[in-house]
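Something for you to look into today, if you have time. I want to see for myself how the chain folds. Leave the record below and I will have a look.
***
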Amino acid sequence: PQAVRRRFAFLFAGYRRKEKIWVTLPTWSPTVIIVALFFQPSESSDCVIQFSTMAGIQFIFALILLGFRPYRSLPANVLAATSNTCIGMVLLGSALLAENPESHWAVLFMLRGVQAQMAVTCMRLVWVGIQFMLEFKYIKDETPTITDHEWEAGFLGGSKEAENQKKQKRSEERRVGKKC
């Protein structure tokens, strides 16, 4: 029902906007990484530039997600932006490792990026479960069933109208019976 959708629309991230460009959004990040990996750098400085550029693009994607909010719920937008930020951290760690293979900061960046990505993935799964439960609960409560229809029509005997009709029928039968 429309009233329920309006009231809880911010919770449901599964429904995207109707603009066609946002439908392709989940493919942007992997496409950039795949295209960038086609180019084989010849020196370590080229590796640093390549990984830094990919990290920068991931951070830009995160800003696009937060700025344009392609998903209708705030948690879905934040989780998607956080996911892109985590990928950017891993790529930035790769750039730091390409520059200095002994760097502890680079390893820490990559490790924390991977751990954060795993946490975000778990949070996304929990969020999808919460959405499903909320949608199911409100759809179930708002959807009429055959039993509801039969109850209202008086077939199952419990509605006030059906009881009143039965009382009227009995009283008419009594009146007709007294006249005979």
Q: What stands out?
A: The helical segments are 2-8, 25-37, 44-68, 74-99, 104-142, 146-153, 160-179. The first helix runs from residue 2 to 8. The chain has a mean pLDDT of 80.
